[in-house]
Please model this.
Amino acid sequence: MTAHSRQSFHLPGAVIRQGDSGFFFFLTLKMNFGRIFLVKCLLLLFSSVKCSVVNRLYKAVNETALLNITAPGSIYHAIWKRDGQRLVQLKDNDVKYFVNKDQCRCKILQNGTLQIRQVVKGDSGNYTVTVYERDGKWKAEEKTSFFVQEPVPQPILSTECMNKTVSVKCEVDHKAKGEEFTIELTQPNGRKIQKNAAMLELQTRHSGTFRCAVKNQVSEKMVEKAIKCSGKLDLYLILSIAGGALVFVIFVIWLIYCIRRRKAKRREGDDEQRMMQTLPAECDRAMRELPPTPYAPTPKQVRVQQRPLPQPQGQQQPQPPRPRPRTQPRTPNHPKERP
Model:
């Protein structure tokens, strides 16, 4: 390679040309070994440091709390502290209290667990336990953030329909200050969540089931309500109602017509049956009411019928009296009674 084609690399304290590939490889290897050596030294320096464990524990008022120790192996010497103040100590199965036992309501078990009975909100705080070996060397240290909370109250879910809009309110009466809780209002299309809020409110056009829930780390209470707001009637709804009413009216008219027609047919049948029943009786009555058959006239009636009509007096001539017919009966003469 010519002198003009040779390139150089500038490093702090050295100039390396492209032809010096062996030297460049040696320098890179030396830098990597330096980094590895530095990491090993740091590991050896901090190998004896043990990290502290921080736990979080929540309990409701009047419950029993157990603060455990996660360090492996048996516990020979352990000291529990609350906010830096020593509470109780366990050493070689011997228990020592640094506070009033009745006021503390605490007890240390053989495995190092701290038990607190009927916890109150004043028991909340940062608890620390330090564990030592038999030879007095420090073994571990664990921290527990302990919180005592009141159970959440029952939420109140109220709704109101305005036209086609649903107005929903989720309220909670939480008078305790400093309490952490979450209020959640769930609707058919989603939900709304807020922390430490006394009320959540939303408006939507979707009907359905709404749920109001209030919860914290120790309790949860919920209320649900199904809501449906019809609002103003739509055109399709009006048409469907009108069509249904028209069909109902036609059906009623047809039903009335059928009932009347059936009654008329039944009345005609009854009249025919009544006529058939009364016809024989009328025939008998008619037969009884017929006039008697004519009989032959007597000779007297014949002579009376053959008697000529009377003539006017001016033209009538006197005729001799005719003898009475013998056939005419005589009137008997009754004897007169004497006075």
The helical segments are 21-45, 101-104, 235-289, 299-306. The first helix runs from residue 21 to 45. Confidence is low (pLDDT under 50) at residues 1-21, 46-51.
